[in-house]
Amino acid sequence: MVEYRHHPSPLRGRTPLQAWQDDPTPLRDLPAADLWTFTLEDAGTRTLTTRGVRFHRRDYVGPWMTGQAGIQVRIRFMPHHDRRIEVYHAATGRYLGPADLADQATEEQLSAVR
Fold first, then answer.
1. For the purposes of burial, counting CB atoms within 10 Å of the CB of 41, is it exposed (0-12), middle (13-18) or buried (19 or more)?
2. 79 and 71 in contact (C-beta within 8 Å)?
3. What is the mean pLDDT of the chain?
4. Residue 76 to residue 54: CA distance in whole angstroms
5. Sheet with 58-61: strands ordered across
6. Of 14, 37, 61, 105, which is most buried, counting CB atoms within 10 Å of its CB?
7. Between 65 and 12, where is the model more confident?
8. Using the 8-state DSSP alphabet, how is residue 52 labeled?
9. Measured distance CA(94)–CA(71) in Å, rounded
């Protein structure tokens, strides 16, 4: 095993590995479905309309949007992946569902939102 000699002063003479090993905080595994949410960036709030939700000058739609026009939502997205965004209720933070680019949606998906 390679020994590292880096001893940052806040660790009181210990290496980062020693500090990690000495930490009594229990570790827990997260399901992959939950883990990816930590990679999402917050894009603020928007108003859901009959056209879906507007983000970066493009419309996004999802089947769960039916009858939801007018509510305030919070958008979260993965940088450099603009085909889908994740939508949360702005007031409660409850996950509402994904939304896909409207220009890639089928006519059936678009009419379901309207």
1. exposed
2. no
3. 86
4. 12
5. 41-47, 72-77, 84-89, 95-101, 58-61, 53-55
6. 61
7. 65
8. B
9. 13
Q: State mean pLDDT over 82-97.
A: 94
Please say whether the beta carbons of 110 and 49 come within 8 A.
Answer: no
pLDDT at 4: 56
What does the pLDDT look like over 20-30, one tens digit per residue? 899 999 988 88
Taking alpha carbons only, the member of 35, 28, 30, 67 closest to residue 49 is 67
Name the residue with tokens 């095993």: 1
| Phi then psi dihedrals of residue 112, to 5 deg | -65, -35
At residue 42, the pLDDT reads: 94
Indicate the length of the chain as a whole number: 114
Q: Strands of 1-114 (E only): list them.
A: 41-47, 53-55, 58-61, 72-77, 84-89, 95-101
**What are the DSSP calls for 53-68, one per residue?**
EEETTEEEE-GGGTT-
Residue 57 confidence class, pLDDT cut points 50, 70, 90: very high
The span from the CA of 12 to the CA of 102, in Å, is: 55
